[in-house]
Amino acid sequence: MLLLFHQEDGYYSLTASGNIALFVIIAVLLALTAFLTTKDNTAKEPIAEKKRAFSTKQLVFCATALALGFVTSYIKIVHMPWGGSITLCSMLFVTLIGYWYGPKIGITAGFAYSILQFTQDGGSYILSPLQACMDYIFAFAALGLSGFFHKKTNGLLKGYLFAVFVRGVFHSIGGYLYWMDYMPESFPTSLVAIYPIVYNYSFLLAEAFITVVILLLPPVKDAIIRIKRLALES
Q: How far is Cα 53 from Cα 145, in angstroms, rounded to an integer?
C-alpha cells in the first residue's frame, strides 16, 4: 500500500512503501534524463548537440542550482503555520536556470524542483491530486517562467518577480479550493474573500523583497553576470 487515507481529517499520506516508491521514480527520472543528455559519439558534434535537450554543461549548472535551491529551502527564516515559509533566497537559485537558458530548460528544471519539494513537505499530506499539483507541481515549476525574460534588460530581476507572482497564483488557487477551512478565526471577516491571496503572498513577497535587495548589491550583480557568462560559454 502506497497511500494511507486518514478518514478523520480527509487527507492521504504516503506510507513507508510510498516514500520508497516515490524516490525510486525520482531516481528513474534522473537516470532517464542523464541518458537522454548523454553525448552521442556516433554523430558529428553539431548534430549531436542539437539532439540533446541539455548539454553536459547545462546539466551540471542546472543540477548545482537545484541543489542550492533545495538546501536553502531548509533554511527557513519564518515558517508559516499552514505551509509556506520565508527561506534564504531558495527561489532565486531555481529562477537562475531560466535566466541562463530560457523558459524550456527553466520550466523543466522547475518541474524537477517541484518533485524535490513534494518529497520534502508535501509527500506526507495530500488532499487530492489537484491540490498536490497546485501547491507543488505547478507552483514550483512556475519558477522556471523566469526564462521568458532571459534576453531582456534586468532579465533576472523581472523574471524572478514574474515567477514568484505566478507561483503565488497557483498557491492561492489551491487555497481557495482546499484551505479555506483552515483560516484562523482572528482573520478579519471583511478580508475573508482574499484570505488565500494574503496568506500566500505574505511569505512570497517577504522573501522576494529580501532577494531583490540582495540582487541590487553591486558585488552580487557583478557575480551574477560572471556566472551567466560561465553558464553560456561553449
A: 17
The neighbouring-strand residues paired with 5 are 12
| Residues in a beta bridge with 78 | 86
CA atoms 84, 85, 88, 89: torsion sign? positive
pLDDT in tens, 145-182: 999 999 999 999 999 999 999 999 999 999 999 989 88
The one-letter code for the residue type at 139 is A
Stated length of the chain:
234
Question: CA 123 from chain center: how many Å?
Answer: 15
Q: Rounded to whole angstroms, how far apart are CA atoms 23 and 201? A: 30
- C-alpha 96/C-alpha 160 separation (Å) is 8
Predicted TM-score (pTM) of this structure: 0.79
